[in-house]
Each structure stands twice: as C-alpha cells, then as structure tokens.
C-alpha cells in the first residue's frame, strides 16, 4: 500500500510539471481526487485494512491527498497569474499614442481658395461668372481672337491638338469669343477654368488655371481697365498694393499690357520673391482689339472693351508663398492641411 502511495505521489508531480493548460489541470484533479479518482479509491479501500493498519494507512492517504491538493492549487494559482499577466500585456494601452482625430474635416485646396477669392474680388464689382469648355475649337481659342492658323503668336502657346480643328483650350480667352457671340453689350464677365499647354517645370504645369475677364460697353478705355484692376489688386493682395502697367503684346488686345503689383513681402524694397525688383507680374490685359469685336459681331464703332487674363496658380503661389507649382498638384496632405 505504501508503495502504491509513493507511486501515485511521483506520478502526480511528474504529470503536473507537464500540464500546459487549465483544462489539463482540471483533468488531473478529476483523475486523482474526483469521485472515482485514484486517491478517492484508496480511501474507499481502507475498509479492507486490518484495524491496526487502518489509522496509519488512513493518515498516509490523507497526507497524500492534502499534498496533491496543495500541488494542484499552487499550479492553478501559477496559471491564473500567468493568464492575468498575458491579458494585461495584450490589453496594454500606449497613452503616448495620439488617437486618430474623429472630428477631422476636410478643407478647400489652396487653388480653390485663391480662385474663390479672385471670383469674390470681381463679382463684388458687378462681374458675373461664365463657364466655357475645356475641349475647344481652334475657331474660338485662336481664330476669332485674331490668331489665324499661320500666326506666329501661336508659338507663344504650345498647344495639345486633338484634331486639326479641335484642341484642349490653351487660354480661357476662348470664352470671350463665345460670350460676345451670344450676349449683347454691356458685357462684364469673368471665367475661371482649366487650360492646357505642353509645358512642365517648376513654374509651368501642362494643366493650370486661368481667370479671364471681359468688359464691353460704350466708351470703355484704359482708365476703366486700370481702375478695375487696381481695385482687384488691393482687394486680393492687400490695401496698400500699388500697380504698374507695362506694354506687352497679345493679338486680341490693342494696346496690350502686363500688370505688376508692388511686392507685398518687401513692399517695394526688393526681396527674393520679387527678385530684387520690388514688383511682381500678375496678369496680361489690354483694350479689346476692334478686329475681335468685329469677328464676334459687335460694332467696334459703337462699343469698346477691355480684357485680362490672370494665372490662378501664380496668384496662389504668390499669396501663400508656394515655391514650386508642382506641389499644388501632388496633394500631399501635410501641405494641404496648412490651408485650413
Ligand atoms: N490669354 C493670355 C495668356 O494666356 C492672357 C491674357 C492676356 C488674356 C491679355 C486676356 C488679355 O484677356 O487681354 O497668356
């Protein structure tokens, strides 16, 4: 009997060291201490012992039972502690991590912001907004604007042709022609939109945005043009902005000019932005060429007009200090988030 007890004790400690889960531990408990367990069976067998043997053997069995109970309890405790530790590790929260911003909301692209401000500056002066088409006819983009097929001015704009007579518009000026053909003066419109040219570097993109402006009425002259564009410049670039007009050439205006604004970074002293000149070129403009009025069915003896074309990327780059036009189209969120 005593041998049997030793056997059981050894077997329990050996099995216990191999136990790998709570389920296995519970099986072991049933196997030795359960109703039909091995130690329980020994206790039941006590009745077969002689009355002298019984108290000694009974005590040994009870000792074994208590020892096994203790071993099982210790193992169970170890398991519980291990599982608790494991659970804590798995559920560990890194309080130094920033949570995703659940309330994050989008914002307008800097080009859209600049476009909206440009529109606001002109609608405030009574201009209405027109839309044209991006896939345009050579006729509206060039011919009606006094740029015939063999005109050298076509070289100023590297054009994407779709067929001989259909192209991606190179300038929003095409909308001038479409408007004059369908509306009677007085005309006072702006047209913001995409234009396309085969150009690609730090200051040119094959797709970019312009805003065209056109005013046609009786007795329109350069003073009207200057007054209107001065007002725009003060509104968009700041109240103390000065402007100057320089002679230039566009086939659809005569005379033609470019407008510079005083550098709003250095206020005319000269800096990197204005390349030391104190002035920044912002747009092309002029008095509508009478040939264009005539082409579009408006009598140049009765009406005159002025027109201008503004580069929207250029305005956004100047206003927001963006050094490279390509950044505007990469849409890196770290860049875009600055313009909330
Ligand atoms: N279309 C010209 C360009 O893309 C800009 C321009 C200049 C538009 C003078 C005009 C204008 O309406 O009068 O370079």
3D structure, described in words:
With 340 residues, the protein is α+β, with helices and mostly antiparallel strands. It folds into two domains: 2-90; 110-339, BirA Bifunctional Protein, domain 2 (2-Layer Sandwich), CATH 3.30.930.10. It has helices spanning 2-18, 22-33, 38-44, 53-90, 110-123, 138-141, 174-182, 222-237, 290-295, 312-320, 327-330, 333-336, and strands spanning 128-129, 135-137, 166-168, 187-196, 207-217, 243-250, 253-262, 279-288, 304-311. The longest helix has 38 residues, at 53-90. It is rod-shaped. It starts with a helix and ends with a helix. The structure holds 3,4-dihydroxyphenylalanine.
In short:
The protein contains 12 helices and 9 strands. The chain has helices spanning 2-18, 22-33, 38-44, 53-90, 110-123, 138-141, 174-182, 222-237, 290-295, 312-320, 327-330, 333-336; strands at 128-129, 135-137, 166-168, 187-196, 207-217, 243-250, 253-262, 279-288, 304-311.
């Amino acid at each position: 009997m005593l041998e049997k007890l030793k056997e059981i004790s050894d077997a329990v400690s050996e099995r216990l060291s191999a136990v790998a889960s709570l389920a296995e531990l519970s099986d072991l408990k049933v196997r030795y201490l359960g109703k039909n367990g091995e130690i329980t069976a020994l206790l039941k067998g006590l009745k077969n012992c002689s009355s002298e043997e019984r108290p000694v053997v009974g005590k040994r069995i009870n000792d074994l039972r208590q020892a096994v109970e203790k071993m099982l309890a210790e193992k169970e405790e170890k398991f519980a502690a291990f599982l608790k530790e494991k659970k804590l590790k798995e559920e560990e929260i890194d309080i130094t991590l920033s949570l995703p911003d659940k309330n994050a909301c989008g914002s307008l692209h800097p080009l859209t912001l600049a476009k909206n401000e440009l529109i606001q500056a002109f609608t405030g002066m009574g201009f209405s907004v027109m839309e044209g088409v991006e896939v345009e006819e050579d006729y509206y983009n060039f011919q009606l604007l006094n740029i015939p097929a063999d005109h050298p001015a076509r070289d100023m704009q590297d054009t994407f042709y779709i067929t001989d007579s259909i192209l991606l518009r190179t300038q929003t000026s095409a909308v001038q022609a479409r408007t004059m053909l369908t509306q009677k003066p007085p005309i006072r419109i702006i047209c913001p939109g995409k234009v396309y040219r085969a150009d690609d570097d730090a200051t040119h993109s094959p797709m970019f945005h312009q805003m065209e402006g056109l005013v046609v009425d009786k007795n329109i002259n350069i003073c009207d043009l200057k007054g209107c564009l001065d007002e725009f410049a003060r509104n968009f670039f700041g109240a103390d902005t000065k402007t100057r007009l320089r002679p230039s050439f566009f086939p659809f205006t005569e005379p033609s000019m470019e407008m510079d604004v005083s550098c709003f970074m250095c206020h005319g002293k000269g800096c990197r932005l204005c390349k030391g000149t104190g002035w920044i070129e912002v747009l092309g403009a002029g008095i509508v060429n009478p040939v264009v009025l005539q082409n579009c069915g408006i009598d140049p003896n009765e009406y005159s007009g002025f027109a201008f074309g503004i580069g929207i990327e250029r305005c956004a780059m100047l206003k927001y200090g963006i050094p490279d036009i390509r950044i505007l189209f990469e849409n890196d969120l770290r860049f875009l988030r600055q313009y909330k």
